[in-house]
Amino acid sequence: MKRSFVLAAFVLFCCLAAAAVERKGSREIPFRYEVNVGYGTFPFADANNFSDMFRTYDITWLGNTGSLSSVYGDYSGPEYITGVFSAEFNVRFKKWFTLSSQMNFDAVLQGTYSSLTGERTGNTNSYMLSVLPYAKFTYLNRPLVYMYSSIGLGLSMALEHNSSLSLYPAVQVVPVGVAVGKRVYGLFELGFGTVYCGCKAGIGYRF
Amino acid sequence: MKRIIDIVLLVSASLLTVSCRISDGFSSRHNPEGLRTYTYSLMNSMLDSPLQVMDLMTEIDVYLRLPDAEKMKEEYREMRENLKNLDLLSLKYIGAGQIDTDGKSLFEVGSRWCFVEDGYFRYSASWRIYPGHKDRLVITCVGENEWEIEEDGNGDMLRMHVTGTQSEAVAGKLDYAVTCSGLVAPDEDGYSAEFSTDGMLWLNSVDDTYDDPYCYRCYTGDFYVRIFSGGAEKDWCRMISGPDGTLSYETNL
Questions:
Q1: In A, residues 87-116, which contact B (CB 8 Å cutoff)?
Q2: Count: domains in chain A
Q3: Do B37 and A65 touch (CB under 8 A)?
Q4: In this structure, which of A69, A157, B69, B239 has its CB flanked by the most CB atoms within 10 Å?
Q5: What average pLDDT does the segment B114-118 reach?
Q6: Cβ burial, residue B230 (10 Å; 0-12/13-18/19+)
Q7: In which band, very low, low, confident or very high, does the pLDDT at A27 lie, cut at 50, 70 and 90?
């Protein structure tokens, strides 16, 4: 199932690339290539941690209070998320069409502590890496500003505490994105999906 | 242009606040509250639940000795629906478990009934469940309205002496005077516990407003727990239930 998903994403990427016609030396596309790095809000998986919309259990219930480990066992400390770090490479085939490849990373960090001494005994960190190709459609082109929407389909690899590596489909939709600048540009997106839910901002370079 | 970039950088900096603490986590439970919670939970599983089984066994015993015409009354409908004969000496109560009798009434001195829990005991959400293990309770009649209840499960042990007296509040029901002792087997970190009671009474109530909403009966008396680490006593806790139904605790912490 997961292999089929990845294969379908790759085929989509190739089809879109084949459909685009390269125009060398076009004044409409002064810079064909872009690289950028960005930082975004929590991914869908992390949304479960603190959104009532997704929560299906009572987080105040401390679980089994009828065992000695409930008194003397290690306990979990505060939980932190890193947010989503992303890196992207874009190839602009036409004024209105760009293909992107993006890599994203985020982590949820939590330590464990001894009930007797309070000293840290370990952690229950989890990490996620996502790789997605995107199809990006530009609907506003100005010398310094362009706006776009995009959709990406790829793969997420999650490493959770006390668990082996897991693979999940990755989907991301960006209804609104804006890039401002010429050779050096800033970007801001609103999007939702398994990569992030909320917004992302970043900085890039065109060449 | 510079202003636009400044705006983008400002938004980026704002996003850094998203990398944040999303929960405060938990705190150490090695404190008086943790000990109280554990003691209460242990009393629930080691006293309240076996006594619920005791009640069910006496109800089954009374039902089995009824004339057939009496058994068809509406008040015994639930018993008829859930109690099934497996063979001459064994029964099954749906939602509870299997009861192996020795053919004698539970009120006959020398009789010995065994109850093996099968799944979640419907009368009590606090019945101790060990995955892959079936708790086994043995009830032996040692005198008139006197029983010894023993349980061995997963290394834990319970020995309970129960004396029944006719309830003043509910006709046909027994109140219990309970004396018990037992132990909780060492866990993987080497912690174990011993428990005992002192003058506990389990009483029927005239209404559903129990003093303790998590126990199906009113009770009074003391429940004492000692906790050991690697064989050495580490902590203790005493739960005191007063005649007015109030609960208080004493611990070494």
A1: 110, 113-116
A2: 1
A3: yes
A4: B239
A5: 86
A6: exposed
A7: low
